[in-house]
Amino acid sequence: ARSQVTELVLDNCRSSNGEIEGLNDSFKELQFLSMANVELTSLAKLPTLSKLRKLELSDNVISGGLEVLAERCPNLTYLNLSGNKIKDLGTVEALQNLKNLKSLDLFNCEITNLEDYRDSIFELLQQITYLDGFDQEDNEAPDSEDDDDEGDEDDDDDENEAGPPGEYEEEDDEDDGASDLGEGEEEEEVGLSYLMKEEIQDEEDDDDYVEGGDEEEEAEGVRGEKRKREPEDEGEEEED
């Protein structure tokens, strides 16, 4: 039944007289609606979709009448109007009443050629976070525009903090081995020595392996490598 549908994709269908036949108020539960490239000239016949959160309208010929959106889809959080005939800020001003709108796309609309386009839109629509996929500080929007935005952002942060390849993981993997040494410096160098593993594996680990005699053989390779690499590692770190 239509009343159960939550997502509807009508891309590349053909609208007549500004509407798509069969799209009406009966879609009570609709949360995601995509009507890309359907030759839509106006939103005048958009049905009332009170639960709609994401609306894709890219590559149509809409030039105005955006106030309809706030009346009929008041809970929109994401709106894509890229590739339409939107030319001026006055047209976009009608989106001020979409209080929950977080993300707006206007790629390939003439309005993007205006001087200070981005600043003007952010000033006009105080509620939005992302314009054309980036916020005011040029941070990219997470892939998902759903309510778990915060979770996505946290993931991004972790990646950013990972530092040079190898180091981040090494802290976890070799933590026990490194802490037995009791020397903070060597603990940091594990990452680099680990990356060079293939080159040094065959060198004389036994001679270097002194302190941890009781440990299992498994740790032996790692410790030997660390002692081997120590002088060079320090040199490399200074360069960085």
Radius of gyration: 29 Å
Level-2 CATH architecture of the domain at 1-147: Alpha-Beta Horseshoe
CATH T-level fold name of the domain at 1-147: Leucine-rich repeat, LRR (right-handed beta-alpha superhelix)
Q: What is the number of E strands?
A: 6
Q: Give start-end ranges of low-pLDDT stretches.
A: 145-159, 166-175, 181-189
How would you describe the shape? globular
Number of helices: 10
By helix and strand content, what is the structural category? alpha/beta
Name of the level-1 CATH class of the domain at 1-147 = Alpha Beta
Largest sheet: 6 strands, parallel
* Lateral strand order in the biggest sheet: 1-2-3-4-5-6
What is the mean predicted local confidence, pLDDT? Answer: 77
Alpha-carbon distance between the two ends? 63 Å
Helix and strand element order: EEEHEHEHEHHHHHHH
Q: What percentage of the residues does DSSP assign to strands (E)?
A: 5-15%
What are the defining features of this structure?
240 residues, alpha/beta, Leucine-rich repeat, LRR (right-handed beta-alpha superhelix), six-stranded parallel β-sheet, 10 helices
Characterise the protein shown here.
With 240 residues, the protein is α/β, with parallel strands linked by helices. The chain has a domain of 147 residues: Leucine-rich repeat, LRR (right-handed beta-alpha superhelix) (Alpha-Beta Horseshoe). It contains 10 helices and 6 strands; from the N terminus they run βββαβαβαβααααααα. The chain has a 6-stranded parallel beta sheet, with helices on one face. The radius of gyration is 29 Å and the shape is globular. About 14% of the residues have low confidence.
